Queue: 4 jobs
Job 1
Amino acid sequence: MNKKTIEDIDVKGKKVLVRCDFNVPLDIETKTKITDDRRIVGALPTIKYLMEHGAKVILCSHIGKTKDKQTLAPVAKRLAELLNCPVPFAGDVIGPDAKAKANALKDGEVMLIENVRLHTEEEKNDPEFAKELASLAEIYVNDAFGTAHRAHASTEGVTKYLPAVCGYLIQKEIGIMGKALENPDRPFMAILGGSKVSSKIGVIENLMEKVDTLLIGGGMTYTFVKAMGGNIGDSICEEDKIDLAKSLLEKAKNKGIKLVLPVDTVVAKEFKADSEWKVVPTNEIPDGWQGVDIGPETVKMYSDLIKSHKTIIWNGPMGVFEFEAFAKGTNAVAKAMAESDAVTIIGGGDSAAAVEQAGLAEKMTHVSTGGGASLEFMEGIVLPGIAALNDK
Ligand code: ADP
Ligand code: MG
């Protein structure tokens, strides 16, 4: 970790603009009740540190999409409850209310400004808007890992005008995932699943340079199986990625990486929760059936492999985990990882959701909070919101 953190700077008496990820889900009917406050809870350590060290804390975030024009007011209310202190809410972002409330802050106090995406300039990374936003404060802290892969005004633009450091959430994300990618305890294994090869090409290619073992699961399995000449029945397959799958298999062989495909597969007649299903060898899927989960033999094999590795990164469910009947493979892999003593890291939105759903998130070394951002990080892409922060 070569980026400065909040502990590397003096914040006392300073106005500190903190970019949080308060993009929390709201109830559909009224859009005023927060249905899951984990992102707010996750931001508390950074906020509390700054308050305890005498900063004047100005929080900002986006919520929803630009077109939604959603207010952050419910978040201010929830923050006040969690922090047990007043959290004044400015009804604008760079307008008179935000400026007045920011100037009225005393050391150790906190406030929240309105949704930065009420301005279309936010996602355009408009320099004038970024400058106005920056003018609210003297220091900038980024703690929104989930949007760090986007160069927006509040994630990247502001860093041109203020000293910029990371908060605890980003520090943890890049500390743990960065170590795994740069200097992992070996043997190092990646487990990759999800629906498509095409959405994971970057991840596979980057991890192939680093891992000792690569386990494949999920929908992308069948493109690999077809590349090897197996029968995949009606399973999802990306015809235009078969050559790529072949070259990845070849590359793994040349590099001496153990690339493992499921030996057996749960196949379903229909893509439905209550479909008829059975277990068949992965390369012998009959026509009229489609692969929806890894089979019991594969579960055993993958669980044993998990036991013998020291670092494990997992991205992409092993099957259609949204249907209970086809979540067994995903849950079993989650369980094996939870029971292992290895460094265990989960990246990707659906994978994190699967681990949460299985109630095993607490048992992992790290469940990344950023879906797209964690994927890009695993692809080895430099995230603009992190690159822009000051080096140590
Ligand atoms: P992540 O968000 O963790 O990166 P992905 O978005 O790549 O993961 O993949 C998750 C999706 O993959 C899930 O919706 C799951 O239903 C789907 N999936 C997994 N296995 C299969 C399969 N065999 N056939 C079709 N879809 C699958
Ligand atoms: Mg996904």
Job 2
Amino acid sequence: MCGIAGYVGKRRVAPLLVDSLKRLEYRGYDSCGIATLDGGKVWIKKDMGKIDDVDGKMDLKNLPGNIGFGHTRWATHGKVSKRNSHPQTDCKDRIAVIHNGIIENFSELKKRLKRKGHRFRSETDTEVIAHLIEDNLRSGLDLEEAVRKSMNSLKGRSAIIVAERGFPGLIAARTGSPLILGVGRDEYFIASDVPAFLNHTRKVMYLDDGEMVVVEGEPRFRNLTDGKGIEKRVITIDWDAKQAEKGEHEHYMIKEILEQKETIMKAINQDEREIRRVANEINKAFGVFLTGCGTAGKVCQTGEYVFSNVANKHVNYVVSSEFPNYRNFLTKKTLLITVSQSGETADVLEAVKAAKEKGVKVISLVNVKGSTLDRVSDITFLIKAGPEKAVASTKATTAQLAILYLLAYACAGKLNEGKKLLLETASKINDMLNPRYEEYIKKLAKKICREKNVYIIGKALNYPMALEGAIKIMEVSYIHAQGFAGGELKHGPIALIEKGSPCIVLTANDGMNNIIGNAMEVRARGGFIIGVGPKRNEVFDYWLKTPDVGLASPIVNIIPVQLLAYHLGVLRGCDIDQPRNLAKSVTVE
Ligand code: G6P
């Protein structure tokens, strides 16, 4: 889940790479580095820390040349250190490599290479690639073939870019982790994600798994297995660079929360025939699974309730990392619905692989067009939320929920009713997200920002949102937060309630919500009750009003919790858009 970016063209490469890396920093941010080619030499600067800090310290932008690449790291193999930062090089510093992924057989490869006399200087799995290429070059292969052969020796998921002293271009390859070629005028960009070069070009060519590209003049795509050439199409993407900027906002997160005024409306603008067709497939299927990770997983879990309540349809939520364990339940009649903002989450892709092995049809809800998940799915619904840059997902969450609602209503043969409800919900969110509302939530954040624990409870449709609310608070403010099903509290967690313990209670006017009794139990033990929902109740010490949208309550109830998490994070001086230890796109299992 590191970010990688390369450039081959006529411009000075180093400033361009620093800019690209900053745009990719959401993918990992514990260390970074750049390599450029100039005057027959590979120039490298790298260190621990975020791009701006490392650039401030080492003047990354000052490296010479018009060809090069950069990397921003989320450590997997080897601690966060200068030595373990990328680029990694071979014994003679002639070959430089950056890498996103995990090499599962790196210990064996390292041992073998060491026996052959290669000297290793880092604890990373990546360094193995540089030495493998060196080894293959020594055996007489040219760089292209050496890279191809080396990639074929790696197990696991990887995306790499390679530079060699004297080679007037770059070579990139992928087996699992994402890689995209941006096509400019006489210049080319290679990156893990489109925003890296969106301010230069919207024309892209996607590398598929098991492919490499040689960028030396016109790019040449080849198959990694047999080396055969591959024809590629240039695709123009419809995101513009501005959408991926912070604009007047201090953080991406708040920008993206406020964008929910429009994103739900955009999300539900889907091809109705396609929605009906998929609904038909869902109704016909024998066993429907919903899968995703993190926040997207909580969306799926909500989906389980939505399908049950709206369409009387049993769908099973399974978190993606566990999905392969369910392979015995999969048949050709099973349907898998995956939800992923990035479309690159490794655990989701593994779930899809397990499903495909059993002939299961895969339908995906994805934000990033052209992402791996988009391309491997039988049918994709793009959620159209626009680029989401903050690590904590907000606008993608509600857009994903909205599409699951559409599908559930379509399954019940009530698509128009569902659409009407969602349109109403979108317009009410537009009204709700006003500056006064935010001020009121800020006031609450001030009141509870020194707390060590926050609890959040919900029932039925709002239970998964209680779990999601806890994720938001934890990741953005570092306050320990835990979500529970309201009824579960008395079976253990209530022992934690002390005088003043904040407990957020998600309520709704959906005919299933008898959570007030649970709130009372907490209040009776001294808890500070923060009610979220359409109706004030005397048990609330603080009330965050949300519009009454009936069954669509999860979509509106999560928004004040997102805002609360944001303001708690700001007040506690946290790194809002890039919380410690996290990354937005988790491309390792
Ligand atoms: C990471 C992110 C989460 C996200 C999850 C799944 O953990 O920090 O915000 O929910 O990955 O990502 P996806 O792109 O598949 O939705």
Job 3
Amino acid sequence: MIERLQAPRGTFDVLPDDSERRAAVEAAARQVLGAAGYRRIETPAFEATELFARGVGESTDIVQKEMYTFEDGGGRSLTLRPEGTAPICRAYAEHGMHKLAQPVKLWYLSSFFRFERAQAGRYRQFWQVGAEALGSDDPAVDAESILLAVALLDELEVQQVRVRVSSLGSLAARRDYRERLQEHLRAHADQLSAEVRARIDLNPLRAFDSDHPDTREVMREAPRLLDFLSAQDAEHFAAVRALLDAADLDYEVDPTLVRGLDYYTRTVFEIESGALGAQSAVGGGGRYDGLVEQVGGPPTPGMGWAAGVERMLLAAGEGRAVAPEVDLYVAVDGGQPARQAAFALAAEARRARLHAQLELGGRSLKGQLKQAGRVSARYVAIVGDTGSALRDMDSGDQEDVQVSGVVARVLRELRGLGA
Ligand code: AMP
């Protein structure tokens, strides 16, 4: 027997029922973000590896161990995009978007690739909806961006949403803070998990994410970044909070909030859903004022977020998949002449913009009526060799109708005009 092949570990097929639910996510994103003036962008699925090395940061888990990197036939190092912000900053610089009215507001719905430990809610190819506003450091951009993320989750009826907000300050303040944190970690090195200990030099902030009990104990006493903010950064954060309060958003300030990417400055936030298990983060983001410059563009402030499509769907509950409507099911009750007439009728119905399905399974008439019921067809045309009938599937009434009159009749009925 030939071995049956499977999709690679950590990936999944989007089957037709799933695809209906995903279309709802896309429609919600278009509605919520489009209404706020965000326009859709699509960047390539792969980029020069250097973009992520520079943009996301060499010390991050993503760049260290999670990227799908390969050499193409021309010897260039390319990487399947692990995230959406660095590519958008690249596109902003490449297309001279700084010359447009600022901020430039963009949204995306794309797939991303990370070599992560596969488990429920964590995949190696996953989809994100994201929004980025480039070119303004106004605290209102931060607050509006956070509110839009929450609005999208509300629109999708994501359950038990919890929003945490913090500020990481400027890169300079973070450097000073990093040293203080490293001192604290080194002083308690013997209590830390091996993983956190190994990353004291490279990425000490991630120690806040550890779920190792002794490490958590050490982190309770650790210096807090919020206490190291410069006066301007503290003022910016206060302004963001005041706007969120004015908008009546329920959120929590969490000084231990760190994100897995290096580029964040000032505001960061994360949204979790209590309806999810261990992988409870549905989305997150923040401000990245140095990133466009980092990838070779002009100094440009930016703010944005991404939310995981699979996790939004998981946290939104099952929800009934909406099957496409069927106005007319064309059944065949006869030989070759009936089959040809049925084929022509289905084509005519589609030209008239009816949702029409033609019997293609070679079923008996009884089987065809059953199938019409399964797809919830509103009407069934039964086409014979010498005549045809139209059945109203709601009332069960059936009448002889000439095949040439079926489409006009169905159109009249659907418009509520009767026979
Ligand atoms: P991040 O870009 O890491 O901030 O992730 C933003 C959101 O994308 C997360 O809150 C998740 O909802 C989703 N996400 C990130 N990584 C994965 C993954 N490996 N599988 C599924 N969803 C993910």
Job 4
Amino acid sequence: MKLLEGKTVLITGASTGIGRAAAIGAAQHGADVAINYANSDGPAASCVAEIEALGQRAIAVKGDVADPQTAQDFVAKAVEAFGKVDVMVSNAGICPFHAFLDMPADVVERTFKVNLHGAYFMVQAAAQQMVKQGHGGSIVAVSSISALVGGEYQTHYTPTKAGVHSLMQSTSIALGKYGIRCNSVLPGTILTEINKDDLADVEKREYMEKRVPLGRLGAPEDLAGPIVFLASDMAAYVTGAALLVDGGMYVNLQ
Ligand code: NAD
Ligand code: RM4
């Protein structure tokens, strides 16, 4: 059964990792997909080609999510190409691992701007379009297990992920009257570019693997199903919710 037939899905930061897996997953479920990406044209073009090979339409729009204008442009380009916006997946994010005591101010500011401001303006732009269309919609934000627990080298990052989770709670209230649902997924540790260097430390990687009851770290594809589900009408009565997708890592005390 295809869950997103006839829908237009927008995904930020979708040339790699979780965003890309969600874009492919949405296309496999019958959606046309617009992806936003930061700078590398090659991976964005190959994501578009993969979606087209599935028989769906796709566009790639370059832009830095930290700039509010990027959100307006992304939504406008998607509407120009596909006529509407049904789903926004706010996924783009960075995590430049760094110790707390000597954390440079510009790293903090950039992380806040990309992860939190970026999500805010993307969600707002999508919601403005959905309200104009008048037939509801679904917003899925990629938060993190890090919204709930801390990280020694992530003091600038975890507050943004808690912020994204909170943003979905507040927007679910603000947008419920328009039939727009807002939820977040909270991935555990998923092997992608964002943590490639951090997990190159074999000891750390093995420690992280041991913390997962399902016995492995996640793959980007592990997020595709949960994101497609929340985007779809199968989740018609789900809003303001947060779905952990972490192999059980969060609940594993001992
Ligand atoms: P990734 O590095 O493959 O993906 C992040 C994407 O965001 C990249 O394509 C990157 O180019 C893009 N991006 C970065 N800055 C941008 C900007 N300013 N404008 C537009 N795009 C930008 O890593 P990922 O793990 O797939 O990360 C996706 C999301 O998942 C992030 O929000 C991250 O916080 C979240 N997350 C990841 C994990 C994990 O373990 N990998 C766990 C929890 C949450
Ligand atoms: C996640 C979580 C993972 C980390 C990534 C970068 O939220 O903390 O363990 O690898 O972020």
